[in-house]
Amino acid sequence: MNISRRKFMAAAAIGITAARSAPAASEVHRYKACIIGDTPRGGYGHSLHMVFALRPDVAVVGLADPEEAGRARRAAECGAQRTYADYREMLEKERPDLVAIGPRWTVNHREYVEACAEIGAHGLIEKPLCVDLQEADAMLGTVTAKNLKWSIAFNMRATPTIEHVRKLVFEEGLIGDILEMRGRGKEDHRSGGEDLVVLGPHVFDLMTWFMNGLPRWCFADILHEGRPASPADVREATEQLGPVVGDTLYAVFGFINGVVASFASVKNAGGRMSRFGIDLCGTRGVVAIRLGSVPDVVWLDTPLWNEGRWKPLPDAPHFALADPARETCKPIVDDLILAIEEDRAPEINLKHGRNALEMVQAIFSSHALDSRVSLPLSQRVHPLITWPVR
After folding, report:
1. DSSP state, residue 17
2. CB neighbours of residue 311 within 10 Å
3. Do the beta carbons of residue 245 and residue 235 sit within 8 Å?
4. Spatial separation of the C-alpha atoms in residues 154 and 175, rounded to whole Å
5. Would you list the DSSP string of 99-134?
6. Whole-angstrom distance, CA of residue 217 vs CA of residue 222
7. What single-letter DSSP state applies at residue 204?
8. CATH fourth-level superfamily of 160-321+348-389
9. Residues near 141 by Cβ (< 8 Å), separated by ≥ 6?
10. By the 8 A CB rule, do 217 and 372 touch?
């Protein structure tokens, strides 16, 4: 049975509204913030050192980076009052209310979050969330136990365009009942396992948000140089993101009520003509989303999916980023601060980061086991670490 738009009408899907959290002039420097970066080990993804630049109620009191040159440069860009080589020293001395964790590399994400939690700081972290689900579970447990509010930099989902897509497709039935979703990575030099880990989370975050939860199962096949990938092909990613495998992969997921979703990343299939994004296929048409800081969305108004002309989404909001470094994550930061004040979970939070990671790990797990796997995964350790001993 296909999922009906009526099932989404009652779903809790509150969009992020930046305007409602605009600080008053009297609230200047109400919050102290710190930035954790690491120039040689992942730097500052999504320019996260700049995320508080448009909040007059937030003062960036410190920035930590072990590299002196990178530390000085980023501190100057974000106006940090003091700099540190050691982030733990910074957290202890500054005792911030808010922390932005910038490195793209995930190997230290868990220890960053746990150190922030020790001093009671809320914050925002770059995606991917962490290396594996065991770490993700621990991170969520830590912040939940202390009632801390943490967001993750799924900036593409926070755009007005994607919120409009969800409203038209999943609440108003623009393309009828949803039959399937098709996702692809960037398929560049990172094609396969690394593309899955780095770009896959953006696609999977949209899938789980659109469908209001995790899929029930996953079946995947991963190739290395044209043959099935084996334990001998497991390697470290170009950046320290944990183990990866394969240069080509195909995966299928099963969501509720028979809706299926696919994800693929194929060697040499991308290049300059990236298909990075997700297509939503329904009984009356298709919506194609190509992901970026400002997503590009068009739709096809036909149940055959193969005739007619692609056209802009009806009543789509028109917006642009005049200053991407400052504006990319602004809706997420605005909502994070509002969540602190209202004592609620941020609209984009660590559970969403774990959901996306769950789908990444399910693909690795399915290939390693050569079978369909159920989600949530019972095995929380990285499946490529345990693969050789099975």
Report:
1. -
2. 10
3. yes
4. 25
5. EEE--S--TTHHHHHHHHHHTT-EEEEPSS--SSHH
6. 17
7. H
8. Dihydrodipicolinate Reductase; domain 2 (3.30.360.10)
9. none
10. yes
Q: Which fold has domain 15-152?
A: Rossmann fold (3.40.50)
Query: What residue segments make up the domains of the chain, in order of their start?
Result: 15-152, 160-321+348-389
Q: What is the number of alpha carbons within 13 Å of residue 142 lying toward its C-beta?
A: 22
Task: Tell me the CA end-to-end span of the chain in Å, nearest whole number.
Answer: 37
Q: Is the pTM of this model over 0.85?
A: yes
Q: Is the peptide bond preceding residue 388 cis, with omega within 30 degrees of 0?
A: no
Eight-class DSSP state of 63: E
Same fold, 15-152 and 160-321+348-389: no
Amino acid at 89: E
DSSP summary character for residue 43: B
Q: Give the count of beta carbons closer than 10 Å to the beta carbon of residue 42.
A: 21
Closest CA to 205 of 170, 150, 156, 274: 156
Q: In degrees rounded to 5, what are phi and psi of residue 52?
A: -100, 5
Query: How do the pLDDT tens digits run along the chain, 390 residues long?
Result: 344 433 333 333 334 444 444 555 445 669 999 999 999 999 999 999 999 999 999 999 999 999 999 999 999 999 999 999 999 999 999 999 999 999 999 999 999 999 999 999 999 999 999 999 999 999 999 999 999 999 999 999 999 999 999 999 999 999 999 999 999 999 998 899 999 999 999 999 999 999 999 999 999 999 999 999 999 999 998 889 999 999 999 999 999 989 999 999 999 877 666 799 999 999 999 999 999 889 999 999 999 887 778 999 999 988 888 998 899 999 999 999 999 999 999 999 999 999 999 999 999 999 999 999 999 999 999 999 999 765
